[in-house]
Amino acid sequence: MDLFDRIMELSRYGYFCGQILAILMLETIGEENSELVKAMGGLNGGVGFSQGCCGCMTGGACLISLFTGKGEDLGMDSPEHKPALGEFTQWFEDEMTADYGGIDCRDITKGNPAKRVEYCPQIIASTFEKCMEILQERDLL
């Protein structure tokens, strides 16, 4: 099954952007973590379905942080943490602003729920691919 088909399948199960990104990453690394998937649901629909910042931007940042961020009391962020996040967020802002007029769900969908069905699967796919590229270029995945 290709990436787009998997995204559509997960959408049919009722998952949204942040959750789909988490599931795709977990599948990539061969892990399961239903708690993470549930937590990523808070990013859906523009952070809590507020139509604010797209869940793919926040979700993509979370995916990168999964591999670069501090996770223990005495641990530290990877030296790649901020550069990887910076590269991702700049890419996301540039791409979404050029293609849709901004990075908020309200900018992307223009308040039309049908646009979510039309646009979001491709945004999820390109976000996941960019996260994978950033992580692989840094030998973090």
What can you tell me about this protein's structure?
This protein has 141 residues and is an all-alpha fold. It has one domain (3-137). It is 67% helix and 0% strand. The protein has helices at residues 3-12, 17-29, 34-40, 55-68, 81-100, 105-109, 113-137. α5 (81-100) packs antiparallel against α7. The longest helix is centred in the C-terminal third of the chain and has 25 residues, at 113-137. It is globular, with a radius of gyration of 15 Å. The mean pLDDT is 96.
Question: What's the gist of this structure?
Answer:
The chain has helices at 3-12, 17-29, 34-40, 55-68, 81-100, 105-109, 113-137. By secondary structure, the protein is mainly alpha-helical.
- Ranges where pLDDT stays below 50 over 5 or more residues in a row are none
**SSE series:** HHHHHHH
Number of strands: 0
Q: Could you tell me the mean pLDDT?
A: 96
* Biggest beta-sheet profile: none
Number of domains: 1
| Quaternary structure classification | single chain
User: Roughly what fraction of the amino acids lie in strands?
Assistant: under 5%
Helical proportion?
55-70%
Ends distance? 21 Å
Shape: globular
Class derived from helix and strand content = mainly alpha
Radius of gyration from the alpha-carbon trace, in angstroms: 15 Å
If helices are DSSP runs of H or I spanning 4 or more residues, what is the number of helices? 7
